[in-house]
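Q: Hi! First time asking for a complex rather than a single chain. Here are the components, and I think there are four in total. Is that enough to go on?
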Amino acid sequence: MAREQAPVKPVAPEPRAARQPLRQEVVDGIKTYILSNKLRPGDPLPTEPALCEALGASRSSVREAIRILTALDIVEVRHGYGTYVGRLSLSALVESLTFRGLLSPDDDFQVMSDLIEVRELFERGMAERLVGALGGEEADRLQVFVDTMRAAGAGDAHDFMAADRSFHAQLVAPLGNDLIGQLSAAFWEVYVIVAPHLDVFTSEHGDTTVANHQRIVDAVRARDAGEFAAALRDHYEPVRQRIAEARARR
Amino acid sequence: MAREQAPVKPVAPEPRAARQPLRQEVVDGIKTYILSNKLRPGDPLPTEPALCEALGASRSSVREAIRILTALDIVEVRHGYGTYVGRLSLSALVESLTFRGLLSPDDDFQVMSDLIEVRELFERGMAERLVGALGGEEADRLQVFVDTMRAAGAGDAHDFMAADRSFHAQLVAPLGNDLIGQLSAAFWEVYVIVAPHLDVFTSEHGDTTVANHQRIVDAVRARDAGEFAAALRDHYEPVRQRIAEARARR
DNA sequence: GCAAATTTGTCCGTATGTATC
DNA sequence: AGATACATACGGACAAATTTG
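A: Yes, that's all I need. Here is the structure of the assembled complex.
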């Protein structure tokens, strides 16, 4: 053990501690750049060569770092033009949950079921708040979407689903909690993508669906929290039903 | 307009439609590979050169695709050994929300506030379910963590927070909804990371905190849904308070 | 509408670091 | 400890896309 000198390589060759990959340092460097310059979504970032020089990494490493940040929607790239600060959406959550839903082999439907339950929890969680403070104009805004759904009927499935989506977005909007709205929207996306792959019909487009939504609006207008919660339960019931049926078919 | 032949370039030179980057095709290719082979988290994936040949792309494109999938925890890489199917966790959500919390310049605290509200919504949303079905043994499991918190006191902050975390994990566990548990855990992580940067103390470690948790356990044991909800509200009150104070300091 | 300039996308070859056996 | 297989990182070159003059 008593040797006259340390082995040749160890004590860090100076250039890099390198306990973590270089690309990760670049990721942190870009994050820090955005934060310390107080950039906003859409603001331009330095070009790839500029980042290479600033962070002391090759273009490959910088590009891989940018890919990571792009996947998180922290960075957005426009081919042939430049890189920018991303929108910081929850697109990564959608990607992640979608893949999980498509993969899970033991019980393909647990993910879907959980998803719906969380959405229902969000909407029922605001029952008291809705009857307490707000009411009239929110109901009017919701009514517009119900009318749109009724007009589209079974004829225009695309418009119907768009109105359905807007309805539920408007439902959680008054909470003033952006996170809930974005999570709810993300879950809707995942459901629409995954459900068809599991032979679950995504929507009925029928009169019952319209009636259920109408009932929710009426409950808001009547400021009846109990009825509101009950209407929501009945609204989600057929969805749970469809998932259960599809699960039984396997 | 009547010309004998179309312009030179258009109708796609055959080799690639290329409306989307090649790396994205590689991403989809790897996803498809995992799905069609029904791989599970931890299962090995082909090596980089193998993927290059199988998907007809260069190393750069394959590597960038792997970086994207790694950011989503769909793929996991072990340096010098191989690439594997990832754990499909919500780590991307944590990264994304954390950065958003650190960035948002107009109101640094909205993200934090929203976060706490969603967690509270999750836990209060299961009030009826707890009193209805389960009760005794769940309360026992929760009691263990409260005792741990009491023992740790203000002395061991690390143990205290670990017990606090476990308590809330156990609280939502009986729902049988993994998604809620993972979202709740993710929000906890984000809070712990972001709060210090905003001069918000993450925890009090005091007797009041312990007492509030004890009150929740007692409510579960007494099967009193109203008391349960009230106890939760009082538990989260100081957290809201701390955020409000920090917000006022700016 | 064309052409040039800028920027990102893709490829290849090579060298290095790291983990397993 | 050595050998092998693999991922990491670099540099240069050319292709594709977009804006601007």
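A: Chain A has a mean pLDDT of 87. Let me know if you'd like any chain examined more closely.
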